[in-house]
């Protein structure tokens, strides 16, 4: 009898703990979908100058030029580490979230050229552009946690998934 009581108490305690921590089956069914917006999304959204909720290829090019000019505070055609940090704080909301300086400065010479800046931005645009139409819509900026964008190879046809995620770019 004593063993049955201990087993019943242990089972009851486990049930109460599971309920309290939300660990029971189906406990996440009513939770909202969790999603992330990367720091660079704030920048991309600001490039939608005509307010149509889509960042077009022309707006992307204008945005790249505008942001490079903003980052190149001394207008010498190069972004140095201190300039990048000031730009990152102002435009991306801080230096703790990417993109980071070395994402742009691939040759690690402590200078980001206009070409390096444009190359990184274009790579990020391609990562977000899940329907591969050259424009960025609001839906392409939302990343559902735990989902990854399917791997693609040149020439491979893929069907975009709702909530696709940019790999390796972080939140």
Give a quick account of the main beta sheet: strands, pairing sense, barrel closure.
2 strands, antiparallel
State the CATH architecture of one domain.
Orthogonal Bundle
Strand order of the largest sheet: 1-6
Number of strands: 6
Q: What string, H for helix and E for strand, traces the elements in order?
A: HEHEHEHHEHEHE
Sum this structure up briefly.
With 171 residues, this protein is mainly alpha-helical. It is built from seven helices and six strands; from the N terminus they run H-E-H-E-H-E-H-H-E-H-E-H-E.
Structure report:
This protein has a two-stranded antiparallel ribbon. It has a two-stranded antiparallel sheet with strand order 2-5. The protein is mainly alpha-helical and 171 residues long. The C terminus is likely disordered. It has a domain of 110 residues: Recoverin, domain 1 (Orthogonal Bundle). It has seven helices and six strands; from the N terminus they run αβαβαβααβαβαβ.
């Amino acid at each position: 009898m004593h063993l049955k009581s201990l087993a019943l108490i242990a089972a009851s305690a486990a049930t109460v703990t599971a309920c309290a921590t939300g660990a029971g089956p189906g406990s996440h069914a009513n939770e909202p979908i969790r999603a992330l917006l990367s720091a660079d999304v704030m920048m991309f959204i600001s490039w939608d100058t005509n307010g149509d909720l889509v960042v077009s290829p022309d707006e992307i090019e204008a945005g790249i030029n505008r942001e490079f000019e903003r980052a190149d505070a001394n207008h010498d055609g190069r972004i140095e580490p201190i300039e990048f940090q000031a730009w990152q704080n102002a435009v991306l909301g801080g230096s703790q979230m990417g993109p980071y300086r070395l994402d742009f400065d691939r040759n690690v010479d402590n200078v980001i050229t206009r070409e390096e800046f444009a190359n990184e931005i274009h790579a990020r645009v391609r990562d977000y552009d899940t329907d591969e139409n050259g424009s960025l819509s609001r839906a392409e900026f939302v990343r559902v946690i735990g989902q990854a964008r399917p791997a693609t190879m040149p020439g491979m046809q893929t069907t975009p998934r709702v909530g696709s995620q940019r790999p390796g770019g972080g939140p």
